[in-house]
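TEACHING EXERCISE
Course module: macromolecular assemblies
Task: Read the component lines below, then compare them to the predicted structure of the full complex.
Student: A.B.
Group: 4
Components provided:
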Amino acid sequence: MSVDWPTTELDPVRRLRVMAAGLNAVMYADAHLDIPFADVWAVASDLEGELPHLVPTLRAFVTSPASGTRQHAWAYGPFGHRARFDVVLQPGWCLMQSRYVVGGMAAVPEGCGTRFAVLGGLRQTWPAQTLTALRPLGHTRGRRMIGRARQRATARRTP
Amino acid sequence: MNKANTGFLRPRLGARQPAEEDPWAKAALLVRAAQSGDALALNDLLDLLTPYVSRLCRPIALAESPDAVQEALIAVFQGLPRLKDPRALYAWVRTITVREAVRVARRAEHETPVGEFDDVPSSHSAEVAADVRDVLRRMSAEHRAVLVLRELEGLDERSAGQLLNISCGTVKSRLHRARHSFRKAWAR
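Instructor-supplied answer key:
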């Protein structure tokens, strides 16, 4: 079979599903938003301006460019504690990790709108039963985060 | 996570490497980091594995290839913590991917029955690739998997049989039938 077969790359949302499985993530959710991709990703990729609106436990998120698609960031909690994050950010794809947690967002055009996905996980090894118990809560939190992203994107579109 | 260790690994992946360096050796380093919980190493590993997994899935799963690629990579990543020898990654990924591609393709075939070999239409198109896809589409996923393993991956019949959990004789008969259907299609 000497034909050069076209390869099928994973789109960013499928890619985040794979990452969620690999990381045994406690939070994963995706949903269709009736908002163009550019508007959704304008919110998701504005980490300093929008991430604290999407994640209630975050007071501020301060980034500093590193190399290429990689960045460093400091996340500040409501009680003054902070954590350093390594960030990969490119169109439709964002992955962040600190010493203790992992977060991710992905988006891909879908019809006239966008499929938007979010991921959250713990880096330390936890008992499987604990992760299983946390997952329904994580799914609910993921849906809420997507809802907040929808609100923010809609607000930014409204003049 | 061992930060010093993964910090050592990631720049090497992006750096220009000698052409003869085995990409699977780099993957083995990423596997170690990913197994220790480094999400960015897992991200780099996904970059490395996706083209290979896609190349295997496409001729087996055809139109279902995006689903097959996703399912295969999920199976690979879920099994990653149990992979004891990262140097075995290549063969391990191939085994999982081919089985997942066959499973996804069979699931789709149950939903959309394909024609028999005798129904292969005459093809006078100059587009050889399109003809190949047309012939493949009329084969079962199992026949396509045998072809991929023998002709694309270069496995011998014994290894292909072990991977697909079938006998050497079954591999030979499927291969014979697959090749026959190609000859028949081209002879028209």
